Each structure stands twice: as structure tokens, then as C-alpha cells.
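Action item from last week, closing it out:
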Amino acid sequence: MSIIVKEKAGSEKEMIAEAERALGDISKVREGVGKVIFGQEAVVERALVAIMAGGHALLVGVPGLAKTKLVETLGTVLGLDARRIQFTPDLMPSDILGSEVMEQDAKGKRSFRFIPGPIFAQLLMADEINRASPRTQSALLQSMQEYHVTVAGARHDLPAPFHVLATQNPLEQEGTYPLPEAQLDRFLMQIDILYPEIEAERRILLETTGVDEAQATNVLSPERLREIQSLIRRMPVPESVVEAILNLVRSARPGVGNAETDKHIAWGPGPRASQALTLCARARALYDGRLAPSVDDVYALAEPVLQHRMALTFAARAEGMGVRDVIARLVKAAG
């Protein structure tokens, strides 16, 4: 996932004009999502930032917090061809990727024909992804990184844009399987969904239990989304932001001279985390109406970008520490 795109850089005026148009579209998207998803502003922001940055997101939370509803709403509002896969223990890789079937024509000649699976969509909702076995979970690996799949030795390209928004129940619940580290690293962000505030929950009660319920409407096209994604990759990144990203990510790796990191972190984030932070900081800046990211964007996105790319030592777990606690300490030390 390179952050460098070889495109002709436009003039500053052109960039500002493009950004202003993008801001208008982003405002419409936020308004469209807000009609259906009440509260959870931080969750909506992070999910949109992940999509605008061109990546995938993992939504983690207990059942009933509108994770699936959020993904469905984003698909409708953004105008993406969306498909849903309900992950279960008996789901097979071919149920996701597709398979080849033998056909016979009128002359008796037999041949194989590939039937695409539900992964051939612009927005794939992997619902309760940790309910499936590791073998089935790994079927997403190639598609999430390389944007194509290989079946029976033949390459099949996926539609563009292609995003995976997966939902996951906490691992403490029965009947779940931990996601492989290699697959976790392919998610741009892990977005934790908490219980709503009381005012948001009051609005949920009043507006979703009557006869009429608000429905999402389309406000953007896939082509326009790709233009916004291209604009984000062309946004300048100040040297101070680059240094902040490098210092933060490298401080989370054991063996670099940080005694506290060595004590609490078994393994830390790799270069893909730095790439993800750079892209997400750009997207968050545009989401907030700015043409360049700041160090504050880096620190605000540190938790969702880094937490699924780190593992704690036994000593840290024995002290009752969580990954978020360690990241908060690193951000505080860096700030």
C-alpha cells in the first residue's frame, strides 16, 4: 500500500478548488449517514476516513450497536455496489471467492466456467468475520492487498473502488476465532464501537420504533469517490507530520531503546502502519476542511490505526494493561 502516486501535481488554486468541491460532497455524505445513524459521530468519522483513504476497516463491538446498519448505510449513501457475507463456522473460501463449474454445450464439449462470488463488489460487508474458521478468513487476504483473486490459477480483478468493512464481536464471546495477524494488518483501521450516549439512545428509541423509519439515500457516485481518494493522495504532508508518524510508530516497536516499550510490547507495528497513518491523517484533514494534515491528526488516529497491529507481553497483561493504554502512553510521551 504505497502512499506515493505518480500524478501530475496541480496548481495550488486547482487543489483548493478540488478540495472545496470535495468538502461539499463530504458534507452531503455526513448528512446522509446522520439521517440513519444517530450519535456515534467518532465512529462515522473514522469509517468515512478509512474509505476516503482507500482502505478497509474492522468494526468491533457487542451485538446491537448498528455495526451492520452503518455499513449498509455507507454503501447506499456512497452509491457503491454492496454485497454482504454472513460469516459462519461452516462457510468455505469458495463461498466468498467463487468457483468453477463444468458446463457442456450442445455438441457435447465440456469446459469450466468461473462463477464469481460475493467478493466481486465495491463494498463488501464481512458480517461477524470472526465467526468463520481461520481458513475461510484467510480467503480475504489476497483481495484486500492486491485487489484481485486467483481461482484455479486464473487471475480475476475486483471492481474499483474495493473496500472491505468487516464487523466483529468481541473475542470474549463464545464461538469466535481470532483473526490472523496478517489479515488484521490489512485493515487500515480498527474502529471500536461503544454504547451510545443517552441523548442518542433516546433518539433511537423515538425514531426507530414507529411506523416510518428514515432511509438512506444516494448522494455520491463511485467515480466521484475515486476522485476524492485521488485528491487525498495528492495532498501535501508537512515534514513535522512525517516526523511525528515515524517517531510514534517506531516508539511502539520493541528493541529500539525504549525500556517501557520493551517491557509492555511483544511485537509492534510495521511500515504499513506508517503508511496507514499518513493516508488517514490526510483524509481526516480533508474531512475537517483542511488542505494538509497536522500532528493532531496523527495523535487522534493513533489508536484505531495501531491497536490491531500490536501485541502485549505477558507482563503487560499481568499488570492489567490493554493495547489502548500502551498507545495512550506513547502518544502522551510523543506529544
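Closing note: The chain has two domains: 9-209+219-234, 236-335.
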